[in-house]
Design a protein that fits this description.
The structure is a single chain. The protein contains 13 helices and 18 strands. It is α/β, with parallel strands linked by helices. Strands 1, 2, 3, 4, 5, 16, 17 and 18 form an eight-stranded mixed beta sheet that branches. The chain has a six-stranded mixed beta sheet with strand order 8-11-12-13-14-15. The protein has a domain of 298 residues: Alpha-Beta Barrel (TIM Barrel). Strand 17 and strand 18 form a beta hairpin.
């Protein structure tokens, strides 16, 4: 019996050791850091050549050529020569399950789904695994922050948190908790679309199920409002219900609801529900958002386009429909940002976020807007625009140093900094690459001998 227990524990610890990444979280340098002679892309304004000084965790000064950092003060700072390189703000993934899942095929590494239909009390940040191998892989391509989103098979899945992709614990990594409450919006199909009696009956069943789910959502809001009204009444000492208690900030308008929906009817229904309930919402997915531009603009509803690299949802649509969605929202004056698909199968590929924006640029979105759609715009939508998303004095010193435009696949990220701390760019993939380079070099040398 003891030997069986020993083997079981050994297997667990072996699994844990295999899953922990080897990159150590960074510490703040002892001196201010001066990035000298690079091309600085603030994103919020025009690019320029010059110097950027960070002190502690914030950007202290910007010097536009011909002005430069005073030479007499150079000995007091750590100089990073950036001639021929480009400085950009770190990118932000606005829809992901990073930290909540590791390997899709291994159930023990998936911690993004809670049982039940209504779970507004779930907090994503407490389940984030700081040792995830996916963090170093993602940040090596310039994505330095990610919104960790609780998933669900039900309706209200919980609150997301914006996480830094570096830190010893989830507490260190949290940039903003309770960014938004996430909801999967039910779609009500039309039975008339059935080609025959059997199909119409099947669609009718799905319609009834969807209507039942919508009623459940409305009932949840009614119960939450009743709970908070009772809580405000003096002399009442009702037992605390964490589900309804956690919906207080949503009902007050302090925290938005992130509604995951793609279809035209669903987007309209979700916006109308938000107006009826007097709450703030953000549309996530938004494949048909371009069809509802007047409605979205009227009610100031932002859209997290997730993703751009996708196929049309209808057989008769143009092949580039998802790729021109950002352009149409931009032309229509709707606030938006771009994210990846956001599913558990997509977590290992969050590093490809810049190429989602690049696809939008290739299909008409102005290049500067494409860059903002993965930097400044997600920061604004997630409520951290005063700290992240652009290179400005007083903002967090979170930036990347690249060989060229980060939206180009030929560009490499040479350095990365999160809140002034230099971040290692090695990861499991780069280590395997270096390992097998040595292997095949040795084989070539052996064959020559």
């Amino acid at each position: 019996m003891r030997s069986t227990i020993y083997i079981f524990l050994l297997s667990i610890f072996s699994f844990i050791s295999l899953e922990a990444n080897e990159n150590l979280p960074s510490t703040l340098p002892n001196k201010p850091i001066l990035f000298r002679g690079g091309t600085i892309h603030p994103v919020s304004s025009e690019a320029f050549k010059g110097d950027l000084l960070i002190e502690g965790s914030v950007i202290k000064s910007l010097f536009k050529a011909p002005k430069s950092f005073p030479k007499e003060k150079v000995p007091s700072v750590q100089v990073v020569e950036c001639k021929g390189l480009h400085l950009y703000p770190g990118m932000i993934s606005a829809n992901s399950v990073l930290g909540l899942t590791e390997i899709r095929a291994v159930r023990a590494t998936r911690d993004m789904i809670e049982a039940g239909d209504i779970n507004p009390n779930v907090r994503a940040e407490v389940a984030v695994n700081p040792d995830s191998e996916l963090f170093p892989v993602t940040r090596s391509n310039g994505v330095l922050h990610a919104l960790s989103v609780p998933q669900g098979n039900g309706l209200i899945s919980g609150k997301s948190a914006l996480m830094s992709l570096d830190g010893w614990t989830w507490e260190e990594m949290v940039i903003k908790s309770s960014v938004g409450m996430h909801m999967k919006w039910p779609l009500v199909p039309s039975p008339e679309r059935g080609a025959n009696k059997k199909q119409k009956e099947e669609i009718q069943k799905r319609k009834k199920a969807a209507i039942s789910k919508l009623k459940k959502i409305k009932e949840s809001f009614l119960r939450a409002r009743a709970y908070h009204k009772a809580k405000q009444d003096k002399g009442r000492s009702d037992k605390i219900d964490l589900r309804w208690d956690s919906m207080g900030p949503v009902l007050k308008g302090d925290v938005p609801i992130y509604v995951h929906v793609n279809k035209l009817s669903g987007i309209r229904s979700a916006v109308n529900f938000a107006v009826e309930q007097n709450i703030r919402i953000v549309i996530v997915g938004g494949a048909d958002a371009w069809r509802t531009i007047p409605l979205l603009k009227k009610h100031s509803v932002p859209v997290v386009i997730s993703p751009v690299n996708a196929l049309p949802s209808r057989r008769w649509e143009e092949y580039d429909t998802p790729m021109v969605n950002p352009l149409k929202l931009y032309q229509g004056g709707v606030q938006f940002c771009i994210a990846g698909p956001g599913g558990s199968m997509d977590a290992p590929h969050e590093r490809n976020l810049p190429y989602e924006a690049a696809r939008a640029a290739a299909y008409g979105l102005p290049k500067d807007e494409a860059l903002r759609s993965v930097t400044l715009y997600p920061a604004n939508i997630l409520g951290v625009g005063d700290r992240l998303g652009s290179l400005e004095i007083g903002k967090d010193a979170t930036l990347i140093v690249c060989t060229n435009d980060p939206l180009e696949v030929t560009s490499n990220v040479e350095m990365a900094y999160i809140k002034g701390k230099p971040i290692g760019l090695s990861n499991k993939q780069t280590r395997l690459y270096e390992k097998y380079k040595v292997k095949y070099r040795q084989l070539r040398e052996k064959n020559k001998g």
